[in-house]
Amino acid sequence: MPTQRMAGLPSGRRTKLVMLALWVVIAAVMGPLALKLADVQDNDSLGSLPAGAEASRAAAREEAAFPEPDALVAVAVYVRESGLTDADRAKVDADRAAFAAHALGGTVAEPVPAADGKALLLTFALAGDAEQQTAAVAPVKDRLAAQAPDGLRTALTGSAGAEDDFADAFAGLDVTLLLATVAAVAVLLLLTYRSPVLWVIPLLTAAVASQVAGGVVYLLVKHTGLTVDLQSQNIMTILAVGVGVDYALLIVARYREELRRHQDRHEAMGIALRRSFPAICASAATVAIGLLCLLAADQPATHGLGPVGAIAVVATLFAMTTLLPAVLVLFGRWVFWPFVPRYTPGIEEQDVAADHGVWARIARLVGARPRTVWLATAAVLAALTFGVTNLSVGLPGDETFTDEVGSITGQHLIERHYPGGTLAPAVVIAAAGTATPVADAARTVDGVATVGEPERSADGRWVRIEATFAAEPTSPAAQEALERLRAAVRGVPDSQVLVGGDTAFEVDGDAVTSRDNLVVIPLVLAVILLVLMGLLRALIAPLVLLASVVLSYAAALGAAGFILDAMGHPRLWSAVPLQTFLFIVALGVDYTIFLMTRAREETARLGHRKGVLHALTVTGGVITSAGVVLAATFAALNVLPMVPSMQIGVIVTVGVLIDTLLVRSLLVPALAIHIGRFAWWPGRLSRATTAAEIPVSPPVPVS
Asked: What is the pLDDT of residues 422-436, one digit of tens each?
C-alpha cells in the first residue's frame, strides 16, 4: 500500500539516511532562494482592486490620458490652533525654498491657506528615481521639524510620508515576527514534552519546511507571475511553523505509544506513521485545498494568499512525514529524556487510555450526559456570537497602523482645517466634449464641497475633474456622496464617465469583498465537506462537523469582537472576515479530523459509543497541545504594527482555542454519542451491532 511504503522510507534502517541526505540537498538549494523572497514582494496588491472595478478603470484611463512622473508626493502641513503668526509664515517660506532642492522641477508651489487662517499646506512631487525619492524623505522631515516656532505643529503626509512611515514601521519586523513565533512555540513544546532536547527537533523541521516553501514561492514569483506580498509571506511563515508543529505533536504522540509496544524503534515509527499519516494527509489536503479556493476571489491580496499558503502547507506535510521521523529514529529513544518510553512486554494488552487521567474524566462526563453537554456548549458558543455587533467592516486609512504615525497625524491636522476630502478628491474622467455638463452635474451633488475646473488631456479626448467631498474620504458620508456623484455624472449623455479616487476605491472594495464572500465561503465549505466524506466514509458525521466549525467561526468572530472593541480596533479591514473564516474553518476542522479518524478506528474495534469516548480520551492531550501551539503562532502576528495583521491574529487565535477547547473536546464527541451509530451513515459502521456497542465508561486511570 502507498501509506506503508511512505512510512517505510523515513523509518527504515538504511532509507532514513537516504531521506536525511535528500533533505540536506533540498535545504541547501531552497534556503538561499527563500532569503531572496523579500526582494520580490509586491505590496501594491495589499491595497489594490481587480482591473474590472470602476476605480481601477478610472485610474488606468487617467494614467493613459494624463501621464505624469511616477513620483512620491510630499504634503507638509503647518498648524497653529490660535492662528498662524508672521514667524510661522516665515518658517513656511524658508521650508519652501529648502524643499525646492528635492522637488520635481526644482520648484514648490505657493502654500495653500486654510479658510480659518490656522493652517498652511505645501505640496510637491519628489524628484529622481525611486531610490532617490525615498532617500529625500528623511531630509524633508528633518527640515520640517527644524527651527519651528513654539506652538506650531508640523507633519509630513501624502504618499511620501505614508511610504516612509510604512518602511520605518516594518524595519526588521520579519525577524521580530519569526523570533516571537519561535519563542512562543518553544515554550509550549518544552511544557508539552518536558524534555530539554525533543522540542528542538519539531521546531527545526518546521523551520526547514518554511525555508523550502519560501524557495518554491520565490521560483514561482520569478517564473510564473505569482504575486507575494508582506502579509502572505508572514502568514506563510506562521502556517509552516504552526501546522508543522501540530503534525509533529501527533506523530510524536503515536511514536511514543508504539515505542512502549515495540523494542525496535524503526518498527515503532513505521507503525506510528501508518496510523497517523491518513489523518495528517487529510488535514493538509483540507487546509491546502481550502486555501486554493481563494483563487476564486477577486480581491488581489486575498487571491494571492491562496497559493502561497497552500505551498507552505504542502511543504510542511512532506517535511513532517519524512524528515521529522528520520531524525527521531536516527537519534533513538534518548531524545525523550528524562521521560524515556521503555519497551514493556505485554503492554499491547493494556488500554493506553489508562495513561490519560484528565481526559478520561472529561470523556466520562461527555458519555454520561451527551445531550446536556452539547446543548450547553452550543449555548455558550451562541452567546459569544453576540460580540459580532461590536464589529463593522471598513477600516479607515487613518486606522491602518496600531499606533498613530506622522503621516496619519498630518491627515488629521488637514481634516480639522480643510474640507474632509482635500487630500483625496474624487477624480472624474469624462469625454472632453461633455466637460461643462459633467462639471455642472458634479456641483449639484449633496456632499461635494468643491469642483475643480476641467483639465483637458494632451490628445484632446478626455477631461479630468476633481471633486472634493465635505466629509473625510473613507467615511460613510463621503461614500454616500460618491454614489450620488456617480449617478449624477452618468446622467450626462455620451460622457463615458468613470469616477475614481480613494473614496471610489473604498466603495468598489466593499463590493468586491461582498462578491468574494458569496463565492469563496460556499466553495470552501463544499471542499471541506467532500474531504470529510472521503475520509470518514460517511455523510451525517461530516455534515455535523461542518455545522460545528461554522458555529465555531461565528463564536470566534463574536469573542474577538469583544476583544477588538476593548483594544480600540473594531472596524475590520475588508478582507479580514473571509481570510479568518478560511483559517478558522480549515485549520479548526483539523482537530476534529484528528479526533474523528481515531474515533472511526476505535469504533471498528470497540463499537460506536466506547470508540468515540476512547478516541477523545487518548487524543485529548495531544490535540489540545496542538491547538494551543497553533493559537500561539497566530498570536505572534500581534507584534506587527498593522491593524489588519493584528485583527487576523486575534480572530484566528480565539477561533483555534474555541475549536480546540470547546468544539472538539465537548460539542463534537457529545453530538456523535447523542446521534449514535447513525453518525457513520451510510458507511458500514452505521450498521454494526456488536457486544462492544454496550455503553461502557472510559477506563479509570491507573494510579
From this structure: 677 899 999 999 999
